[in-house]
TrEMBL record:
It comes from the Bacteria. It comes from Edaphobacillus lindanitolerans. The keyword rRNA-binding does not apply. Residues 41-352 form the Glycosyl hydrolase family 13 catalytic domain. Residues 1-26 form the signal peptide. The lineage of its organism: Bacteria, Bacillati, Bacillota, Bacilli, Bacillales. InterPro entries: Alpha-amylase-like_C, GH, GH13_cat_dom, Glyco_hydro_b. Its cofactor is Ca(2+). One of its GO terms (molecular function) is metal ion binding. Pfam families: Alpha-amylase (PF00128), Alpha-amylase_C_2 (PF22026). The chain crosses the membrane at residues 450-468. This is Glycosidase. One of its GO terms (biological process) is carbohydrate metabolic process.
């Protein structure tokens, strides 16, 4: 009887406690040029080996060789990626290639058979679409294999690079036409949702715009972006300066965070990232500065998913991958995730997906002093306060009432247990432990939750009665045993 009462009251408390739910918002439309989702960036060969049937000469122990990752592996790990809240997956270059990273393109007209067949690629896209997730692929414009099929019949099209690769002489009309035709054909044949143009160097913006218009004519909702800064009309802006700012601020404690004032909303939206598939991993920088990567990453990930822009996270970041150099940056994913970090990424990403304000709302930096950073994302209907304590000490910040929409509000912490009310002098005081981050949703102050308090008192009282009854029965049992003797 007592156990049933406890269970019933506990259930009533859970149901009665007002849990916050972000304002409803439809998922971003597939390939919409106003894309505001989040991207998980990977390489097919390095992610997961789903079937040995296409391994051929794979050797996971050789950093220069193919490792066996394939489309089947991505399908098998779809739920793993989706569990972190990502709405799109970038799978890198998938043309026939003589390098595991796909950049040594041999033929724009065929898919690398070590990765899988065209049918398997179609299956991959279909499986991800079932979960409302998009698939993007790379189109390397330059630095392809010296053995590319075009070099056989059109040697004058190729410009030899010092690293042994070739780029295309896009000053030639026939080269431009061939590249555009190859990109359009790829989009038409595969049905990918997005195309990332890579390795075009200082590429002619006029040519890039011509290519962008052509692939969008083939698929109007195709997302087209790049991995280099460009003056071309991409749907997302690539800004290496923002990447440098994020690394500088979040790779260590007590940084000069004044540079964060350079982060602001852009049109088109900026790609936000800590890692790329080139160079050293962000975690390696933390390690070099003798920081603890999982803790650093939690603060950094909160910023990544709440600052204005479109987050793109390189595979392995959720396990704090710390590789350096070209090979170290492309490890075979072992999926030995730091569960706390992975869960934190999932939680912040889920909040972002559910809140249009966090994705596209206005942005204002409220406080920024040596690594203690507070900003707000807001619309007419919703306000968030994001606090990042990137310092070595507990910090306190007072937020003026006008920044939370006036008085009679509360700030409800999403990761902590705080419920911040307005102080007597009118401001809202946020206190945050060192190296932590939290997100606060602004709500109307409804005063004390009397039903919750009454229910809690009843549960506590019944629990004491339960303990008393157990003690009483035990005492009676001992008395009966003594009498029986």
């Amino acid at each position: 009887m007592i156990k049933q009462s406890l269970a019933a009251l506990s259930a009533a408390i859970i149901i009665g406690a007002a849990a916050w739910t972000p304002s409803a918002s439809a998922a971003p439309a597939s390939g919409d040029p106003t894309f505001d989702g989040t991207i998980y960036d990977t390489l097919v060969d390095r992610f997961f080996n789903g079937t040995p049937a296409n391994d051929q000469d794979a050797d996971p122990a050789d950093p220069d060789a193919f490792s066996g990752g394939d489309f089947a592996g991505l399908i098998k790990k779809r739920d793993y990626i989706q569990s972190m809240g990502f709405t799109a997956v970038s799978i890198g270059p998938i043309f026939s290639t003589d390098t595991y990273d796909g950049h040594g393109v041999l033929d724009y007209g065929s898919i690398e058979d070590r990765f899988g067949t065209e049918k398997e690629l179609s299956g991959l896209i279909s499986e991800f679409h079932k979960q409302n997730m998009d698939i993007y692929a790379d189109f390397p414009v330059g630095q392809v294999s010296a053995h590319h099929v075009w070099t056989t019949d059109h040697e004058d099209w190729a410009v030899r690079n010092p690293d042994g690769t070739v780029s295309w002489n896009i000053e030639k009309p026939e080269v431009r036409e061939a590249l555009i035709g190859a990109a359009v054909s790829f989009v038409k044949k595969t049905g990918v949702d997005g195309l990332r143009l890579t390795r075009f160097g200082e590429g002619d913006a006029a040519f890039l715009n011509e290519l962008i218009r052509a692939v969008k004519a083939e698929k109007k909702d195709l997302l087209v972006f790049s991995d280099e800064p460009s003056g071309a009309e991409f749907d997302l802006s690539y800004n290496t300066g923002e990447n440098a700012i994020l690394k500088q601020v979040f790779s260590e404690m007590d940084p000069n965070s004044s540079v964060l004032e350079g982060i602001e909303p852009t049109d088109p939206p900026s790609l936000l990232f800590f890692d790329t598939l080139e160079g050293d991993r962000f975690t390696a920088e933390m390690v070099e500065k003798r920081m603890f990567p999982p803790t650093r990453w939690k603060v950094a990930a909160t910023a990544l998913f709440t600052l204005p822009g479109v987050p793109i996270m390189t595979y392995g970041s959720e396990v704090a991958e710390a590789g350096t150099g070209h090979h170290g940056n492309h490890p075979n994913h072992d999926f030995k995730a730091d569960e706390d970090l992975k869960d934190h990424i999932a939680n912040v990403n889920e909040l972002r997906n559910k809140s249009e304000t966090l994705r596209t709302g206005d942005y204002e930096l409220l406080y920024n002093e040596k690594g203690m950073i507070v900003y707000r994302r807001y619309t007419e209907d919703e306000t968030w306060i994001i606090a990042l304590n990137n310092t070595s000490e507990t910090q306190r910040v007072d937020i003026p009432q006008e920044k939370v929409g006036g008085g009679d509000k509360t700030l409800r912490a999403l990761f902590g247990s705080d419920l911040i009310r307005q102080a007597d002098r009118g401001d809202y005081r946020i206190v945050l432990d060192r190296e932590t981050a939290d997100m606060f949703i602004v709500e109307e102050d409804k005063g004390l939750n009397i039903p919750y308090i009454i229910a809690a008192i009843l549960v506590y009282t019944i629990f004491l009665l339960f303990i008393w009854q157990v003690w009483r029965r035990g005492r009676q049992r001992r008395a009966d045993e003594a009498k029986a003797k």
